[in-house]
Amino acid sequence: MADQGKKIRGKAQETVGKAKEKAGQATGDDELRLKGTADRVEGKTRQAAAEAQESVRDAADAVKESTRKHK
């Protein structure tokens, strides 16, 4: 469940980053555009990390369950 929250926060950060990028492009503010790019990339990275963490947890749970069945 905690992973879901991390994914949501990552998606929110990605969305804010996209908005900053567009605002920076529209106004010619390269600093804002670059901050937006950084936020967007960090948000995507956070989402990917949460998904990886969830996959590892699921795999560990499957191994535990498999071990219990074979005892």
Fold and architecture overview:
By secondary structure, this protein is mainly alpha-helical. 93% of the residues lie in helices and 0% in strands. It contains two helices and no strands. It has helices spanning 2-27, 30-69. The chain is rod-shaped.
Given the structure, what is the number of helices?
2
Order of helices and strands: HH
Approximate helicity band: over 70%
Could you report the average pLDDT, rounded to the nearest whole number? Answer: 93
How many β-strand runs?
0
Q: Report the end-to-end length measured between terminal Cα atoms.
A: 29 Å
Strand content: under 5%
Radius of gyration: 18 Å
- Poorly predicted regions: none
What about the largest sheet?
none
What's the shape?
A: rod-shaped
Secondary-structure-based class equals mainly alpha
Summary keywords:
71 residues; mainly alpha; 2 helices; 93% helix
Short description:
By secondary structure, the protein is mostly helical. The protein contains two helices and no strands.
